């Protein structure tokens, strides 16, 4: 977390990247939920992309180890405590997403050897619902002057 203030213009511009992340996350979740890709390489690619977008959004919403140049939800509020007071606590499921993406998707690790077939399943519908629930809180409370134009035009919500 950083105490550096961002201008409304900077936040608006940055929010366009955030909008893209949320749009992709939602689009990929809907593709997964459709089941149209079955057990294919394309399905795996969609799942992997979904997990990366989920991790990026969680890093935005729950900036636990942010760097000074990371875009985080707290930047959109007058004081970081405002966001921290209204956002939901991170569920056990969401707490595991970051580690799983790192160990099971982004990096080749020996940790993969101990993951059972049942544990390899991603609860993508629940992850989708939980992240969107936190985003609804964010969007209901953020000053609209800090969001760019795509927040009114692109389908960013479930």
**Largest sheet descriptor:** none
Rounded average pLDDT? 91
Oligomer: single chain
Radius of gyration: 16 Å
Q: How many strand units? A: 0
Sketch the topology as an H/E string, one letter per element. HHHHHH
Describe the global form: globular
Number of domains: 1
List low-pLDDT spans: 154-158
Question: Which range does the strand content fall in?
Answer: under 5%
| Head-to-tail CA distance between termini | 28 Å
SS content category:
mainly alpha
Helix content: 55-70%
Can you count the helices? 6
Question: Can you offer a commentary on this structure?
Answer:
This protein has 158 residues and is mainly α. The protein has one domain. It is built from 6 helices and no strands. The C terminus is likely disordered.
Short summary:
58% of the residues lie in helices and 0% in strands. It is mainly alpha-helical and 158 residues long.
What brief labels describe this structure?
158 residues, mainly alpha, disordered C terminus
Chain-wise SSE layout:
Blueprint: H1 8-34, H2 41-61, H3 80-86, H4 92-106, H5 124-141, H6 150-153
Helix pairs in contact: 1-2, 1-5, 2-4, 2-5
């Amino acid at each position: 977390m950083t105490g550096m203030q961002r201008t409304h213009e900077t936040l608006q511009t940055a929010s366009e990247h955030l909008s893209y992340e949320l749009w992709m996350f939602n689009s990929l979740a809907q593709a997964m939920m459709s089941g149209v890709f079955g057990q294919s390489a394309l399905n795996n690619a969609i799942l992997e992309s979904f997990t990366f977008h989920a991790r990026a959004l969680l890093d935005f919403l729950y900036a636990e180890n942010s760097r000074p140049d990371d875009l985080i939800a707290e930047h959109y509020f007058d004081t970081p405590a405002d966001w921290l007071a209204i956002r939901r606590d991170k569920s056990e499921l969401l707490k595991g997403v970051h580690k799983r993406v790192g160990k099971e998707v982004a990096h080749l690790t020996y940790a993969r050897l101990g993951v059972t077939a049942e544990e390899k399943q991603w609860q993508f519908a629940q992850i989708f619902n939980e992240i969107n629930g936190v985003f609804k809180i964010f969007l209901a409370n953020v000053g609209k002057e800090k969001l760019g134009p795509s927040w009114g035009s692109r389908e960013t919500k479930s």
